[in-house]
Structure formats: C-alpha cells, structure tokens
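[Discussion] Sanity-checking designs against the backbone

I'm trying to build intuition for which residues belong where. Below is a structure token string of 195 positions. I'd appreciate it if someone posts a full sequence so I can compare it with mine line by line.
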C-alpha cells in the first residue's frame, strides 16, 4: 500500500519509511507523484494541523495521504514552541538558529522538562480517517550535543539514555521518539483497518 506524505521534510519521510516499511507500507513524497501542496498550519493543536495537511494532500492527489504534525513543548515556556516549533523565532531562522533561540529563552531557575509530540493523521479518499498520537518526555539540554537527526534534536536530552536525540542512531531514536510511538500506534490501527 502506498501513502503520500503531506510534508516536504525528507528526514520525516525517511523516519516514516524506516518504521512502516516493515508492514509493507510505502510512504512516498509529494514530488514522487507530481503533487505540490503547501498547507498553512492554521490549527491551534497538533491534531488540527495534522488533519489539515493530510486532507489537503489526499484531495490534491486522490491517494491516501499521511501527515505528521509534531513539535516540542517546554514546560517552563508554558508549552511553547508547541505547534509553532517549525516557525519559532520567525521565518529567517534555520534549525540551529531556532534551537539556539530556545536555549537563550530558557528560564535559569526552572525545571528544563519538555516533551516532543507527534500526531499522525491518515486521510483516505473515501472519507475515512485514522489518527494516532505519540509523546516522548525529556529535557532541554544546556548546550547542543550531537550531529544526527534534525530540528531541535541536538538540544533534546533523554535523561535515561544520557544522550540527546542527535546523539542517537536512527534506530535508537525511532525506538523512543514521539514519531516512533505515534507510528507504532498508527500501524496497529492501519492493520486493523486493512483487515
Ligand atoms: P511540522 O513539520 O509542522 O510538524 O513541524 C515540526 C517542527 O517541530 C519541525 O520543524 C522541528 O523543528 C520540530 N520537530 C518535530 N519533530 C522533531 C524531531 O523528531 N526532532 C527535532 N525536531 C522536531
């Protein structure tokens, strides 16, 4: 079965295929099927944005479409950057600029606990919808560490593993990450749906 990914993030595509290929699901990019949809993420929740993206790409392609809306929620910042994770600090920043800004904005005297959240939505052309949510608790490191992954990975520290996401191999990250957990839950729902 082929699902179109409602994102242009090549690293998300890779992570999704690593996890879903085991059950014979191939996730392809919009470019692979000649569709180019940019969805404005106007929702107030990961659920809303995930649905907006999957529905728009399903409608444009006529194929089942899968979206992940994800972000980092920091307790000391009242859940920010949250749904604004990709745009934190404004459009001009790259990944490193965003995590540096996050480090600079961390209050000195408060716990550094945080969580990554991922909500997966899959919209089918017949109107059916599957959703799954995954969370990964951790903490904001005091400095960036590691070269792997993307986004805020170098500053997201896992106390149990004593490493940031960026210091894990792809397999190690997928085993504990928000997206890994959401995709695992999604896989169970998809298997049930396809029976
Ligand atoms: P989305 O594409 O709207 O879901 O944006 C999610 C944003 O959250 C990304 O641009 C990253 O900044 C951040 N993010 C989501 N998942 C991860 C992850 O696994 N590692 C690091 N950053 C992530």
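Best answer:
Here's mine. Compare freely.
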């Amino acid at each position: 079965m082929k699902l179109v990914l409602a994102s242009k993030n090549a690293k998300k595509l890779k992570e999704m295929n690593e996890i879903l290929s085991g059950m014979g699901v191939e996730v392809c990019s919009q470019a692979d099927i000649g569709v180019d949809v940019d969805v404005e993420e106007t929702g107030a929740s990961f659920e809303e944005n995930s649905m907006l993206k999957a529905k728009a790409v399903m409608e444009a392609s006529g194929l089942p479409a899968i979206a992940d809306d994800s972000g980092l929620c920091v307790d000391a910042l009242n859940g920010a950057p949250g749904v604004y994770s990709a745009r934190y600090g404004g459009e001009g920043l790259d990944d490193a600029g965003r995590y540096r800004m996050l480090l600079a904005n961390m209050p000195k005297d408060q716990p550094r606990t945080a969580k990554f959240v991922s909500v997966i939505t899959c919209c089918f052309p017949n109107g059916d919808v599957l959703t799954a949510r995954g969370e990964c608790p951790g903490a904001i490191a005091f400095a960036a560490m590691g070269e792997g992954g993307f986004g805020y990975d170098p500053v997201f520290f896992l106390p149990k593993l004593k490493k940031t996401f960026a210091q894990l191999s792809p397999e190690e990250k997928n085993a504990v990450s928000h997206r890994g957990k959401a995709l695992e839950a999604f896989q169970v729902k998809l298997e049930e749906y396809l029976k």
